[in-house]
């Protein structure tokens, strides 16, 4: 039995399964290079085989943490919070984002979009996965589409997702880290030939920071 799911406070968003929180530099997408406080929530059923945080998948491994505790730590570290996972939209994020906004903290999210949108967002980075496609609510609200390139077929998937997202969303291609030597030259050429796309690199891994 999933013990986390049985907690009534989880449905209201007053508690969330917290894997970790840390202050670092955003390494990917539009906000690359910005200082940001990361709030990583446990729980994900999307199941990307190349995921580098598989330890986040089982929400039962991560303590249900009161939102006020999460926010009190966030406000000690700048004015930008990034909610990530796992898959953060598995949970009700209305309370978390409202409380962060009350403290003057910008709310960014990184999501596969596999669940309906909750929360009040200043920036949504949608990174869709083939195993569980985004909901229309996230396509409509995304500020940034970030498609991971693991093999050549992923270019076709990226274009399919770009056709679904709203027309104001910025478009990024990002090579999966283990494939960077093989696929990065192809991504460079693709972006040169299709300049609506930009390249996102995992800068934090080059900098050797979390």
Automatic annotation (TrEMBL):
Its cofactor is S-adenosyl-L-methionine; [4Fe-4S] cluster; Mg(2+). The keyword Metal-binding applies. Pfam families: Radical_SAM. It catalyses: 6-carboxy-5,6,7,8-tetrahydropterin + H(+) = 7-carboxy-7-carbaguanine + NH4(+). InterPro entries: 7-CO-7-deazaguanine_synth-like (IPR024924), Aldolase_TIM (IPR013785), rSAM (IPR007197), rSAM_sf (IPR058240). Keywords: 4Fe-4S, Iron, Iron-sulfur, Lyase, Magnesium, Metal-binding, Queuosine biosynthesis, S-adenosyl-L-methionine. The keyword Iron applies. Pathway: Purine metabolism; 7-cyano-7-deazaguanine biosynthesis. Binds 1 S-adenosyl-L-methionine per subunit. S-adenosyl-L-methionine binds at residues 50-52, 86, 127-129. Residues 31-210 form the Radical SAM core domain. [4Fe-4S] cluster binds at residues 44, 48, 51. Substrate binds at residues 25-27, 40, 84, 210. Belongs to the radical SAM superfamily. 7-carboxy-7-deazaguanine synthase family. Catalyzes the complex heterocyclic radical-mediated conversion of 6-carboxy-5,6,7,8-tetrahydropterin (CPH4) to 7-carboxy-7-deazaguanine (CDG), a step common to the biosynthetic pathways of all 7-deazapurine-containing compounds. This is 7-carboxy-7-deazaguanine synthase.
